[in-house]
Amino acid sequence: MSTQRVSEVVKPALMRWARETTGLTLEQAAKKIGVKPARLAEWEAGSLRPTVAQLRKAVHVYKRLLAVFFLPTPPIKPTPLHDFRRLPADAPDTLSPELLLEIGARADVEQWRWNSCQTLIAPSLSFRSGLNSTTIPKT
Fold this sequence. Notes:
Elements: H1 6-9, H2 12-21, H3 26-33, H4 37-45, H5 52-62, H6 97-121
Helix pairs in contact: 3-4
């Protein structure tokens, strides 16, 4: 049986994905995690691995579940729709990390609501049509 350290299983691509999807720069993320930017870059490149304590800190900073860091590939999340309320020159280049986290949280809640409706409410609904050939008005 193979015995790997927990930190050895973390995929570097997931470290980078988690940082980029929260909208943090390498420097911002490193400061919040409490490591040097060079160390975080090494984690994302795969030349070094974070300790379990450092990984837990990254989980907190990136607002992700710990299990996400053990997936084989980064999850695919839909990108926000294009905002047509502004002209292209007036649109911001990037969204703030706080706004990206809020968009993700709202999308998760919406997904939860949809799943709840599908599993709890939809099966109990029954639709009966009151229309038949005698109730349809003739034109």
